[in-house]
């Protein structure tokens, strides 16, 4: 036997042993995961015994579980990967308690679907809807437990439809998800790649890739459609067209990548909100969103914001939108760190309430973990 074959023999028996060890670990994991799932079933019974209308999904608890997993992670898997595995495990456990229906801005293949999956995991039932206000309506009507809508993009700013929908809803924000957005130039298999004369995408995505398009396809017609998934669907049957969309849409519509990561800013990301019909208890690291209408007098905005500053509350966002009642009246959307049950936040909110014409807390919710 030469050295080489002895080495190989050694490798083979090593491999055999390692696989036996992995089988043994898997058996242990199966036992533990099943024990975890049984525990979740008991949790469901406890919740129901306390309240027949019990909420099974607990965003604050899920955020704590994920953060704990990342803190305990000894490696070699990155914390986010380990948390992703736990995300799926919780999703499956929750489905045993109650299958959760999640409406999102569709069609299938949108970044919003990707955000919904990232937040709720694979075991949630997803319901694609064609418009943001329909997502609000579906959750208001109780046909879906939760909804997922985009609210702001790091390159292009706010999604006005979402902010406007919050003006006339009683729904609450139950969570947030931030997604890194990578755009690709996609084509169907029969497309003449050198003859692309039209590029479809959502207006925001076209804007996020403007410089790249100017440099690479200055003469192609840019056509804005209702979503990037819709763009992907359209180009399947068009020989001279390409779509700008993400990986979900590429997979869903079996498209090929002509160019990858064509967004102008490399850290392009979008924030999505989870909407539901209940308040979320504190998780330990929360944000609060509110909408306020100002009194129509000089210094009103300063007066409105001053209590946040004095109570040292960290404001993370301020947006204004025209109010739909009366010309030139504005409402403000304010996000800040902290939970509405925190004594400091409560004190600030009481003062703000006296200074604003109207304020409505849209929700306190866990800061996005993944
Ligand atoms: C098990 C529970 O119910 C659900 C499932 C969870 C889990 O699997 O860890 C966590 C929160 C809830 O969404 C719970 O509330 O603890």
TrEMBL record:
UniProt-recorded Gene Ontology molecular function terms: chorismate mutase activity; prephenate dehydratase activity
Residue ranges of every copy of the Chorismate mutase domain listed in the record: 9-101
Spans through the membrane: none
Highest taxon of source: Bacteria
Cellular localization per UniProt: Cytoplasm
Gene Ontology biological process terms from the UniProt entry: chorismate metabolic process; L-phenylalanine biosynthetic process
Keywords: Amino-acid biosynthesis, Aromatic amino acid biosynthesis, Cytoplasm, Isomerase, Lyase, Multifunctional enzyme, Phenylalanine biosynthesis
Reactions it catalyzes: prephenate + H(+) = 3-phenylpyruvate + CO2 + H2O; chorismate = prephenate
Gene Ontology cellular component list: cytoplasm
Pathway: Metabolic intermediate biosynthesis; prephenate biosynthesis; prephenate from chorismate: step 1/1; Amino-acid biosynthesis; L-phenylalanine biosynthesis; phenylpyruvate from prephenate: step 1/1
Keyword set includes Ubl conjugation: no
EC number, UniProt record: 4.2.1.51, 5.4.99.5
Lyase keyword on record: yes
InterPro entries, sorted: ACT-like_dom_sf (IPR045865), ACT_dom (IPR002912), Chor_mutase/pphenate_deHydtase (IPR008242), Chorismate_II_sf (IPR036263), CM_dom_sf (IPR036979), CM_II_prokaryot (IPR002701), G/b/e-P-prot_chorismate_mutase (IPR010957), Preph_deHydtase (IPR001086)
Site-annotated residues for Essential for prephenate dehydratase activity: 270
Principal subcellular localization: cytoplasm
Residue intervals of the Prephenate dehydratase domain: 101-277
Signal peptide limits: none
Domain ACT: 289-366
Function of the protein: Catalyzes the Claisen rearrangement of chorismate to prephenate and the decarboxylation/dehydration of prephenate to phenylpyruvate.
The protein's name: Bifunctional chorismate mutase/prephenate dehydratase
Organism: Kushneria sinocarnis
Organism phylogeny: Bacteria, Pseudomonadati, Pseudomonadota, Gammaproteobacteria, Oceanospirillales
